Amino acid sequence: MTSPAKFKKDKEIIAEYDTQVKEIRAQLTEQMKCLDQQCELRVQLLQDLQDFFRKKAEIEMDYSRNLEKLAERFLAKTRSTKDQQFKKDQNVLSPVNCWNLLLNQVKRESRDHTTLSDIYLNNIIPRFVQVSEDSGRLFKKSKEVGQQLQDDLMKVLNELYSVMKTYHMYNADSISAQSKLKEAEKQEEKQIGKSVKQEDRQTPRSPDSTANVRIEEKHVRRSSVKKIEKMKEKRQAKYTENKLKAIKARNEYLLALEATNASVFKYYIHDLSDIIDQCCDLGYHASLNRALRTFLSAELNLEQSKHEGLDAIENAVENLDATSDKQRLMEMYNNVFCPPMKFEFQPHMGDMASQLCAQQPVQSELVQRCQQLQSRLSTLKIENEEVKKTMEATLQTIQDIVTVEDFDVSDCFQYSNSMESVKSTVSETFMSKPSIAKRRANQQETEQFYFTKMKEYLEGRNLITKLQAKHDLLQKTLGESQRTDCNLARISVSSC
């Protein structure tokens, strides 16, 4: 004889589920830690850039002063009598002209390095300060969004646990009722067999009084059989009721299982990417691009001969790419961001029906539920699409704010015929206090509205994902059920 199949016990199934949920919870915690770490590294990077340019501004200013002292030292000599003689001549000697041009160039370089120091202190460093403030603020909001999504995901997992426990309970009741029904059937068979044997033994050979006793005994046996039949009918009804509850509970479990797997997949594949792309990195790369382009413009206009050395920096600025950074981050922490294994159906006590039951008496209920889901999905998709359009329009506004091309400082290096540098307009444009206050107020107000719509869109997409998974599974099951019914009908007609 073959040994009976070994089924997982309730405790084993729950333990496996708890282990899988704990692994996901640990991943979610590590994700937040990883993003926290990236934020700290970003803040440190921006602080290092500020310190670097502050020190470089001091060096440029010292260099400018030294150049000015150098030029003044030799220009003082040109004010002597001999120099005045040279100036009276109509044709200045070419070596003297070269010397004068060289000294004028030193003075020009002194002015240029003063301008460069001013750009570092009053333009580039404030930009990094602003990027740092924006990054911290946006990361805090992003963390709230991410935490909300993680809470929603854990809520879905808890709901799946509750539905699975309910399925276990009803399936256990169904198995118990089935066992009691079989026991009643055995008692009925035993009582009927006993009655038949007694009737066969008792032949009509005795007087009338003995016949009356036999009739009375026969009546008692029939009464006992009827009691057993009534008990069997009650147990049959109880089994039918519990079996229906078990089928419905299993259907709910399978639907919840499909919705949970869809939600987990969406979170790991779409939500994490969206949080990093559209929340954590919102404007960061573009703002850093602008700040470094300001530096490039200053350096390239200061000295074209340095162009070869600045190409590497320009190339790095050109390659500031949020998508590549995100991909690199997720590859570095692949074990944290990779989706977990899908939740599989865990059969309970030999219940191997891992598909939705679409036969009567639950078929009409499933059809009605599928129609209700379709109607609700249509409404939700329209509403969520409107929210998405508003969110995308707001995102475009934010991108327009952080991608404005205001990094060109070439005007700071334009010179008149008298070799005087054109007055820097840095303080009057980008870094003017009224302009900053207005831009930042508009930017933060737009950001607040964007994050509100972002949360609304993600929550709506979460709900649509769960409902769509349930609807698709119902639709697929009902379609297969209809095809099976049609085939059975054809077979019945052909046989007639």
Structure description:
This is SLIT-ROBO Rho GTPase-activating protein 2 isoform X7. Residues 363-397 form a coiled coil. Residues 181-203 have a biased composition (Basic and acidic residues). Keywords: Coiled coil, Phosphoprotein. The chain is mainly α and 496 residues long. It has two domains: 10-80 and 91-195 and 221-306, Arfaptin homology (AH) domain/BAR domain (Substrate Binding Domain Of Dnak, Chain:A, Domain 2, Up-down Bundle); 359-403 and 431-495, no CATH class. It is 81% helix and 0% strand. The protein has helices at 10-75, 81-88, 94-201, 208-280, 284-302, 307-318, 322-332, 334-337, 363-402, 433-495. Helix 3 runs antiparallel to helix 4 and helix 5 (284-302) packs antiparallel against helix 6 (307-318). The two termini are 42 Å apart.
